[in-house]
Design a protein that fits this description.
The protein is an all-alpha fold and about 160 residues long. It contains six helices and no strands. Helix 1 packs across helix 4, helix 3 packs antiparallel against helix 4 and helix 5 packs across helix 6.
Length: about 160
Amino acid sequence: MIGAAAACIGAFVGMEGVSYAAHRWLMHGPGLVWHASHHAPAAGRVERNDLFPLCFSLLGFGMFALASAGVLPSWAWWAAVGITAYGVAYLVVHELVIHRRLPAPVPELRYLRWLRDAHRAHHVDGGEPFGMLLPLVPSGRRQPARSSVDDVLARASTRATRPRL
């Protein structure tokens, strides 16, 4: 059971690095064809960028299937649990906390404000941070991002459209 817990927790923690790499070198590289929709004003509830989580979940599903079939070692099944848990956390943080795409209340916690500010800094110029649950960005970038997003929100509310942060 300790091995299962270690595989699960290790995969969850390791996914922040995978998320960073995928965002920086895939989504802001050859995958920008899909990801650009995320940095553009909202055109509806679904955007091309939503194809990324679908593809990533298929990889996780494949890992579950291969581990269940014995093609991968048994600890890989527990690693798939950790990867899936990270995916759920990413969904909640990115879609609910940051972009408010899901209709649910969000508590005003310091950590959640930090995540929101860091993600907003990324949306200002497409640069750092690329991580999601541990977005490391110099504090000097956060204030300009916050004021820039406040301007965007003010303009968007006058157009009666859902703002994209």
